């Protein structure tokens, strides 16, 4: 059985035991919380409606960082150039239960 969950602005496919990275949350390490379910698949059964009671429970493992992204701006003949970096912060979670 697996489910498609919504975590922030993204959707991810998860199964029990998977470790995924979601957008940063303020939940302490070791605590659990639930993610809303968009779709569940159990063998041949696909369920996309009536999922108000369905949930995916995840356990927080810790914080991680994404890859470094370098942003460069340059304008010809004016002497303007700007260099900026960014590194997105994520929370690593383990899926412990899928209830449909």
UniProtKB/TrEMBL annotation:
SUPFAM superfamilies given in the database record: L21p-like
Entry keywords, A to Z: Ribonucleoprotein, Ribosomal protein, RNA-binding, rRNA-binding
Classification via Pfam families: Ribosomal_L21p
Top-level lineage group: Bacteria
GO-annotated cellular components: ribosome
Function: This protein binds to 23S rRNA in the presence of protein L20.
Protein name in UniProt: Large ribosomal subunit protein bL21
Name of the encoding gene: rplU
